[in-house]
Amino acid sequence: MRPFTGNFTQQEPLSDEAIDAAVDVMRSGRLHRYNVVDGEMGAVSALERAYADWQGARFCLACTSGGYAMGIALRAAGVEPGDAVLTNAFTLAPVPGAIAGVGANAVLVEIDENLVIDLDDLAAKIDRSGAKVLLLSHMRGHIADMDALVALLSKTKVQLIEDCAHTMGARWNGKRSGSFGLAGCFSTQTYKHMNSGEGGLVVSDDADFMARATMLSGSYMLYDRHGAGPHGDVYEAVRLATPNLSGRMDNLRASVLLPQLAGLDANIERWNARHDLIAERLMSVPGIAMPHRPDAEFYVGSSIQFRLPGIGADEAGRFLESAAVLGVELKWFGSDAPVGFTSNHHSWFYLGSTDLPRTDAILAGLFDMRIPLTFSKADCAHIADIIAHWVATLASRSAA
After folding, report:
1. Cβ pair 86, 126 in contact under 8 A
2. What 3-state DSSP class applies to 25?
């Protein structure tokens, strides 16, 4: 079979508009978000206002990373050292890292075959742990039944913070991810849906929460220079009682994000066309199990996941190597050790040991692949054919 020669980590170049905006900021010398002239709205403030409007949120705060966004969201929500915080076991390291960063204890919740949080296990662990916050990771863009989840959290008086690093622009029954609870946290790291290298956004409709988050981000007493923040009066109760954790976004990063926001909806359509082409081909391959996407879910297909149920660790390793020989870069969530960005709860030693048999069984056969927009639809068809070829080869070897 003809090898694929594309690069799975190559992003599209920034637009001329983004480059020009960045050059303008650099020429001004005013990179710090609060270094503006009288009457000027800096790039960070402009981004906060534009993103809040796009998201449909009252408030937005721009910060240094998605992980930082989650950390200050937890702290602004009132999470204290020693508290229990729930999160789904299938996620990436920054999520439990954000919980550990505020001194809290992560309570990992099982997932189901569709790669979303198991609501029965969630209910049981709310009861056992006494946790009052769920940091829900919409991992790899898979959204749980948000109607049922919100009803459960309302009944049990658990606050919801959403990790939307993989669901910028996704919706459940028409409502954007990040809008279902107290706050939504987004990432603009290079491999996410807008690219500033690193960066994060927090959205909320709660003025008191956003005032605390803004002070935590390191606003000094310059909160009136935010593009989508609460009225100044809201800060009176928190401005002298909230530590400065210095995690502000700078004008350079914001300047390259603003033009990308204007093209985000169009890019989501492009991602989904590529994702759906690959998914349709893989669905017809015996031995491959694809996550079910409910009609209520509008996803952003910047990556794709599939399972090979029952595959052993040695076979999984050979499958990865065989695909790589033909140029297809897959990640496997069943590995005993972290590989690059990919890890699982067994390697997060700081959390302690957790018994998660259902999650472990799912992760043992779970493979993952980025879909950069630098790939054409023909590229995606080629990649799907290579995966299908090696799955068929694996099945024939097992049968022999």
Report:
1. yes
2. helix
The CATH number of whichever domain residue 52 belongs to comes to 3.40.640.10
The burial class, CB within 10 Å (0-12 / 13-18 / 19+), for 245 is middle
Per residue in 148-177, pLDDT (tens digit) is: 999 999 999 999 999 999 999 999 999 999
Q: Answer whether 332's CB lies under 8 Å from 318's CB.
A: no
Based on the fold, state whether residues 89 and 113 are members of the same structural domain. Answer: yes
Q: Tell which residue, 203, 136, 132, has the closest CA to residue 169.
A: 203
Q: Is the pLDDT of residue 399 over 70?
A: no
Q: Residue 127's CB: how many other CB atoms inside 10 A?
A: 10
Spatial CA neighbour of 132 closest among 82, 166, 95: 82
Give the residue numbers spanning the domain of 61: 16-262
How many C-beta atoms surround the C-beta of residue 295 within 10 A?
Answer: 6
Q: Are residues 97 and 184 in the same domain?
A: yes
Sheet of 84-88: strands edge to edge? 59-63, 200-204, 183-187, 159-163, 133-137, 84-88, 105-109
Q: Which of 244, 262, 280 is the last residue of a domain?
A: 262
Give me the CATH number covering residue 268: 3.90.1150.10
Instruction: Let me know: does 343 contact 92? Beta carbons within 8 Å.
Output: yes
Same domain as 319, residue 213: no
State residue 4's pLDDT score: 98
178 within 8 A of 164, measured Cβ to Cβ: yes
